[in-house]
């Protein structure tokens, strides 16, 4: 709860016009933007390690290219399921549920989220951990904050990422997806800071650890309003919560459909 309150205060502090670092549609001004963003980050509570991580970041052309090329979200549901390998995700999800039923039952008991939804997300995001990204997280998030297209959306996640560096949860070398998402289920850093859970009891939250990642995903959904025991297909109460995970309609529909098949 304290972390959620703190992140909320971070977001509120970002509205101060005197501190706002200007965005840009090209990478040419990135180096001059970083010191301005650093001042804004300091005002939001980021410490020296986080500031150093921001100053060491570089403009990510790969991130911008990926952000401009998200074609699959414009597909029909049928094509989206085919392109994303839905049948394989369902088959592997069922197998993983069978092998680790106690683990997923414990998550449902604690958070109310059934295994099918968690496994569908895990399969969709990283192929069950097969590929968790190859892009520097700080550079990716900083680039998207600097870029004018969705600067306001990504700025709290940049602040979150820098605080995670301060805490030692990630480093300047941590890699993730092209938009800076972390670990097995691809948490954006601000969400990682707010909803991260130590699922294996080792005293830290590590999104490359399966237990931590899945518990954190379940916690995110529960905190966003998941109602235990109620349905999650379109038209049912918990479908609205799946929308909180990803804004693309075909993604939401795919998670619901695959989750149902995995759950049986």
From TrEMBL:
InterPro entries assigned: Lysozyme-like_dom_sf, MltB-like, SLT_2
Domain (Transglycosylase SLT) ranges: 31-232
Keyword Lipid biosynthesis: no
A Pfam family it matches: SLT_2
Keywords for the protein's UniProt record, in alphabetical order: Signal
Leader sequence residues: 1-20
Record's keyword annotation contains Glycoprotein: no
Protein name per the record: Lytic murein transglycosylase
Organism, scientific name: Pseudogemmobacter lacusdianii
Taxonomic lineage: Bacteria, Pseudomonadati, Pseudomonadota, Alphaproteobacteria, Rhodobacterales
